[in-house]
Amino acid sequence: MAGQFEATVEIDRPVEEVFEYLADGRNDPEFSPRVQRIEKTPAGPTAVGTVFRSTVKDAGMTTRREFRITALEPPRLIRWAEVSKNLVTATEGGYDLEPLPGDRTRVRIHNLLEGHGIGKLLVGLALAAARRDAPAFGARIKAAVEAS
């Protein structure tokens, strides 16, 4: 079983600033408490093919995650795919950004979660937790971008 969760939030910053902040995955720990550390390869601006490697804590388990940027269309679209092998992975995800009047931005984040092996039994629980947290996750993104 696979399934998607998403959140939409409006941020009081211009779309170019929001895009720049979100495209640098090293900012993830500022709004995602599960991310304990993260690094980017290669150095330089984020581009298609950039990889972010992180250590995250989910449901009491620490795992290593690796995400590859699959599409980047400044300032409106960021896509990624998890290439690490974990019980539950975000096989695809992304941000859709829309400029709003008054230098504001609407951001939609979405992830498709998929279970592997015994993770097929756990993905429903992971999806339920992600969907429950989605509004708060969006609020944390908003707060982090606006504080940057």
How would you concisely characterize the structure shown here?
With 148 residues, the protein is an alpha+beta fold. It has helices at 15-23, 119-147; strands at 2-11, 35-41, 51-58, 61-73, 77-82, 88-100, 104-115.
**SSE pattern:** EHEEEEEEH
The average pLDDT score comes to 95
Tally of alpha and pi helices:
2
Helix content: 25-40%
Question: What is the C-alpha radius of gyration, as a whole number of Å?
Answer: 15 Å
How many strands in all?
7
> What is the distance, rounded to the nearest whole angstrom, between the alpha carbons of the first and last residues?
37 Å
Beta-strand residue fraction: over 45%
Please give the order of strands in the largest beta sheet.
1-7-6-5-4-3-2
- Poorly predicted tracts of residues: none
The main sheet comes to: 7 strands, antiparallel
Shape: globular
Please identify the structural class as seen in this structure: alpha+beta
Oligomer type: single chain
Plain-language structure description:
The chain is of the alpha+beta class and 148 residues long. Helix content is 26%, strand content 47%. It has two helices and seven strands; from the N terminus they run βαββββββα. The protein has helices spanning 15-23, 119-147, and strands at residues 2-11, 35-41, 51-58, 61-73, 77-82, 88-100, 104-115. It has a seven-stranded antiparallel sheet with strand order 1-7-6-5-4-3-2, with helices on one face. β5 (77-82) and β6 form a beta hairpin. The model has no long low-confidence stretch (mean pLDDT 95).
